[in-house]
Design brief:
mainly alpha
């Protein structure tokens, strides 16, 4: 009872220096945002280099040593391009849609831990927050397609919305399958629970299911139907140029890194080493984090070059008639294990 009635004066520094808390919040945000922007830029170079190697060609090699400055050149090229605004578009919504998509991809990282205690907001409902932000991402794409007043863009946004909503159900069921044995919605708790054994081993059958759903959720090959050039001429962002297209482009690659990070947290133990032996424990946690995320990111590139694009009806049939029963069965078995 003494602790209950003990006065707390933690609010006094915020009253005496109101700008200090705002400055600290901005610094923490930049600490996450700046490395993320750099990683997105280098991710584009890595994808082009890997695809060039798989196709026995050189890839970017002119800008900087071995082409390392090519992402900066691409960004500068998009920045200096003239923005094209369709005369029949809803101008306010047309300009707001890429900014909304970009903002949601940034907000998503506020609850993703990159190490023990290294998270912007350590909320006990991190999984629920991820679901909410992920569902809001559909609105930016729908706004872009509708505001363009183009039939190709509108059909592309309808495809993307149907695809994202369909596969979010499977992703949610798989995440709940992993969360139920842990008994916590906090992402850091999920990682610490894997200190003895990664979830990759007890949940091995559903790891592939979850990653395939991630491919469909991020609109990546072989499920890149919203951007199918043969019938939709690049899909919902066909009317965008300059920085508007760049924001959609950055949002897509951030989405890939985000889903790879979630796979790492749920199944590969986050920042934990594979074995608790001295040589592995000496390796910095950031090395394990980067290697695990890169493992899933390489799968994105590999599948893009090796697997042909699905037809849209086959994509929806795969999601509703194959993946939904499998994810429901895995969820039900996890629920039985939780209460047994």
């Amino acid at each position: 009872m003494a602790n209950f009635f003990r006065p707390s004066f933690s609010f006094i520094p915020r009253i005496l220096s109101p700008g200090r808390s705002v400055l600290l919040a901005r610094l923490k945000t930049l600490r996450i945002l700046v490395p993320l922007l750099i990683r997105v830029r280098m991710r584009t170079l890595r994808e082009r280099k890997v695809m060039a190697s798989m196709q026995r060609r050189k890839g970017p090699n002119q800008v900087g040593p071995i082409g390392i400055l090519q992402p900066l050149a691409d960004g500068a090229k998009l920045a200096v391009k003239e923005p094209v605004l369709p005369t029949t578009s809803s101008l306010g919504m047309f300009l707001f849609a890429p900014r909304l998509t970009f903002l949601l991809r940034v907000v998503f990282w506020s609850v993703l831990p990159v190490g023990p205690g290294r998270v912007l907001t350590d909320t006990p409902f991190g999984i629920l927050f991820l679901f909410r932000i992920s569902s809001l991402g559909v609105y930016g794409i729908m706004m872009a397609g509708w505001a363009s007043q183009s039939q190709y863009a509108f059909l592309g946004c309808l495809r993307s919305a149907a695809q994202m909503i369909s596969y979010e159900v499977r992703i949610g069921l798989v995440v709940l399958t992993v969360v139920l044995p842990v008994g916590s919605l906090n992402l850091s708790d999920i990682v610490e629970r894997q200190r003895g054994l990664w979830n990759l081993f007890p949940f091995a059958p559903i790891v592939g299911l979850f990653f395939i759903c991630c491919l469909a959720e991020t609109n990546r090959a072989p499920f890149d139907l919203p951007e199918a050039e043969a019938e939709l001429v690049a899909g919902y962002n066909v009317e965008y140029s300059s920085l508007g297209f760049a924001l959609f482009f950055l949002g897509e690659y951030r989405n890939m890194i985000r889903m790879s990070t979630i796979c790492r947290i749920l199944f590969l133990g986050g920042w934990l080493p594979p074995l608790r032996i001295i040589p592995f424990t000496w390796v910095p946690r950031g090395i394990w984090t980067g290697l695990k995320t890169s493992f899933f990111l390489f799968r994105y590139i590999w599948i893009r070059r090796c697997v042909p694009r699905y037809r849209y009806d086959n994509l929806m049939q795969l999601g509703w008639k194959v993946f939904l029963p499998l994810s429901l069965r895995a969820f039900w078995r996890s629920r039985i294990l939780r209460w047994s």
